[in-house]
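The data are set out underneath:

___
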Amino acid sequence: MADDSGSHEGGGGGGDDVREQDMFLPITNITRIMKKAVPANAKITKDAKEIMQYCVSEFIFFVTSEAREKSKKEERKRINVDDLLWSVDTAGFEYVELLRICLQKYRETGKCTVYTT
């Protein structure tokens, strides 16, 4: 779901000109993840892939913006993983503990799989 202005709804990087293709994760990556969540014979429409691409970008923007506000209030220039987890938790998402477990596994093994095929 792209808008013609090349900017992201809700702002972005403080007025920076950002190319549209830089605002969204590649559709092939989105498709690969979506396919892991549905039966092998299921089809995913182009519109479904595009709306998911948009939603993922909005989610990243929202979580990062909230984390940045927290770090600014604490007079820090860097956002850390705790800021991001705080942002996800504050927004009411119920999988912060799963993210903590995944982060720990990633730190130990270099990978974390939260979904199964």
